[in-house]
Structure formats: structure tokens, C-alpha cells
Amino acid sequence: MSVEIDHLFAEAEPQRYVLHTRYLNEQMVRVLKTIGFDRAYQRGKGQYLYDREGLQYLDLLSGWGVFALGRNHPVLADALKKVLDGDLPNLVQMDVSALAGVLAERLLFQVPHLEKVFFANSGTESVEASLKFARAATGRAGIVYCSHAFHGLTYGSLSVIGDDIFRSGFGPLLPGCVEVPFNDVAALERALASKTIAAFIVEPIQGKGVTMPTDDYLRSALELCRKYGTLFIADEVQTGLGRTGRFLACEHWGIEPDIVLLSKSLSGGHVPVGAVLTRKWIFDKVFDRMDRAVVHGSTFSKNDLAMAAGLATLEVIQSEALMQNAERTGARLVATFERMIGRHELVKDVRGKGLMIGIEFGAPRSLKLKASWNLLETANSGLFCQLIVIPLLKEHRILTQVAGHGNHTIKILPPLIISDEDCDWIERSFETVISDAHRVPGAIWSLGKTLVENAARARARG
Ligand SMILES: Cc1ncc(COP(=O)(O)O)c(C=O)c1O
């Protein structure tokens, strides 16, 4: 007997919105239909998705950053098949995993100033572990985090993200968490000076909006942490594993955090995994006696498929020189987008490193455009970016997303394998759509009017 997954997929695919409306998140179905993202993807390979008609799409979302290698990379598929075909002694629990040992050794080879690894099942679980470790290691309760940070949606992580939309309705959260503005060294010092703060948690480049640290921010923050006995946690769940052109984004600023968090790309996009890389003394404070050997952990972490996915991912990042490709193609795209700033008045800023790039739009100067912009912004702040994202998909078959709620930044997070031809595709498409957005009246602003009217109708219906 076998479960005919391929047949199940083929049968269910045309019904997926019905199924999700009935059994899962109906609001997500409404969102997809409203913005015309209801495509019928049938297949994913590398940096491309293919729909029912066989049309090829370029994926600049990478499943929110998990497909560094692209989808279904043959080395990854081979590693996963070998785990299953090999009848490995997975998750014995009252033993230790051989593959976890090798993956830990290889991760630490890339981050040589750290000495221990704790595996988890996701980004947010890695954050949770790091917060617990920091409290246990320092004997302090406080956690400092940055405005606009994103670290995940379980309670510990939710308590240290700087975005109320995710928190609303879920309180109370973890006590002792203090928000400081990103890039504000003085505010950080004020928060740390109480000497009650276990850890400062920060994304080296903030994912929401692709906000860059100022040149000396991370180094100064690390020095302050040292001065006040606070641990420095670098959340590299999104930036890590080569996305910014270095193994860790922290390397751009030459800093050595006490704890580094990885996840997303380490999974190869297929088997959820997270990793907490720490100093030995921190680890030893948590796992300090035999009866505390399992004081923190999770049933599925260190499972062989996840470990094999991690090993295959590291192998491909090296053998295909993906960090170098991310650096080179990213620099090319940033240069192209930067050239748009003077030419297109709606383009305000371009930020990023490697293949983590944000293109920020903002209020125009010319009167005609300003009137349309204001109309849209009054109805729904941040809606303008949808006017770029929607035609990018509809007319140019490029999948992107707005970088966050009420945000004017489009983030691109492509697989690290993209080629120069893909960059041509991206540049051509963005140029056309952004040029069109500067034409009033024009198709893009008509789309804006339709979206505003639809939103008003939806609100009236409740
Ligand atoms: C920087 C960062 N940390 C943590 C997370 C949470 O990861 P997960 O969604 O796997 O829980 C994310 C997810 O986007 C992230 O970008």
C-alpha cells in the first residue's frame, strides 16, 4: 500500500481554497483572492514556480527566506532520501544523534568563536531557547529588544518583537522585556545600565523593512553588553547562512555575539530546523547537572531528516559558492535600484546586503501623483506597495511581498542561486512597473482605486 501523494495533490489542488476556507484560515484565502495572488502553482524547482498552464514564475520570497538553495535541490533531495532509505536509528532519545554531532561541528566551523549548539524546530523555538539560556546563564530576568524587530510569534518571541499588530489580543506577555529604538546606542545604554538585563536580542539587519544598522551600532551595542554583563543575541534566522554575502550578517561589522540563532535556510526549505550557537559557559549553566540533561529540549529537534537537510544545505552553500553569488547578484540589484531613486520620484530608498534587499517608496512631489498617493494613503497606509507587488506578479510573473504592515518597502529575498538572467528579469520588470506607477491616470492607480473600494465594501460587510 502507498499514499498516492501525487494523486492527492492533483485532486486537491483545484479545491485548495475551498478546503482552506472550510478547515483552515479563511482570511488568508480572502487576502490572496483580493490581491490576485490566487495562482495555481503546480511545481517548484530552483528559483522558479510553475502554474497549471506551465508558466514560469520567479520567486523572490523564497518561502520567507527558507529556499536559499532554491526548491527541491537535488543534493538536498538525495540526502533526505538517503536518511529514509538507510533505515537510520532516528530519535532514539535515550541515545545521542550522530548526524546532529556532525552538523553541530560543521556549523561551529563556520562560527569558530562559539563552542556549543542547541537544535530546535523553528526560528521562534531558537529564540525561546536563547531567552531561557540567557536568563539561566546570567541569573537576570530582563530582555532588551528593538523597535520594529521580528523574532517569531510564540510567547517569548512575541514579547520581544516591536510590532503591536502581532501582539494585539494575546497579552499579557513575558514580564521584564524592554523596547529600545533600533540604532539608538544611548537608549540601549540607559536600558542596560540597571544591570538587570540578561540579554539584548537584535537582528543585524532588521527583516521588517530591511533596516540597516548604522556603521558602529552593532559594535557599540556589543561593547555596552560587555560593560553591563548582558549577553548579546544575534538573531540571524533570516540573515544567516550566506543570505547577505557572509555566513553571518554580523561578520560585515566584525562582531562576535554570545549567542547566534539560525533557522530558515538551514532546513533546505523542506525540514524545519533551528540552531542556537552559544559560548560553552552559557550552555554549561543551563545543562549543569545530570538530572538537568533534558531541562530544555523538544521531541523532534535533532531528527535525522532535519540534520540531513542542514548538512546538505551547508554542503551546497560551499560547493556552489552561494555566498559569493549572493554578494555579487545582490550588489548588482542594489546598484540598479539605487539608480531609480533620482529617476522615479516615488522611489525613496534602497537598502540591503547580498540578497536581502528593500526598496522603499514614499510620497511624490508632483501634484498629480501626490493627489493619488494621498487618496490611497488616507484609505489604507502602506497600500501603495500592493500596486507594485500585484502587477509584478500578474504582468511579469515575479513573486514579491510588502515588507510589513503599514510599510512602504518591498522586500526581495530570492534564492541565493539566482543568475544574471534572473537579475535581467527582475530589473526589467521593476523598471516597467515602477515607470507605470508614475503615470496618472494609469492602470496602476485604477487598481489602487479598485483596492480602496473593495476594502471599503469588505469593511461595510464586516
Ligand atoms: C529574524 C527572525 N527571527 C525569528 C523568526 C521566526 O521564525 P519561525 O517563523 O521559523 O518561527 C523569523 C521569521 O520570519 C525571523 O525573520
Describe the structure.
This protein is an alpha/beta fold and 462 residues long. It is 44% helix and 15% strand. It is built from 18 helices and 15 strands. It has helices at residues 5-12, 16-23, 26-34, 62-65, 74-85, 98-110, 123-138, 155-158, 164-167, 185-192, 217-228, 280-286, 304-319, 322-343, 367-379, 386-394, 420-437, 443-461, and strands at residues 41-45, 48-51, 56-59, 116-120, 142-146, 177-180, 197-202, 231-235, 259-262, 274-278, 347-353, 356-361, 398-399, 401-402, 409-412. The strands form three sheets. A seven-stranded mixed β-sheet has the order 4-10-9-8-7-5-6, sandwiched between helices. It has a four-stranded mixed β-sheet with strand order 1-2-3-13. A four-stranded antiparallel β-sheet has the order 11-12-15-14, covered by helices on one side. α10 runs parallel beside α11 (217-228). The longest helix is centred in the last third of the chain and has 22 residues, at 322-343. The mean pLDDT is 96. It binds pyridoxal-5'-phosphate (PLP). Pyridoxal-5'-phosphate binds next to α7.
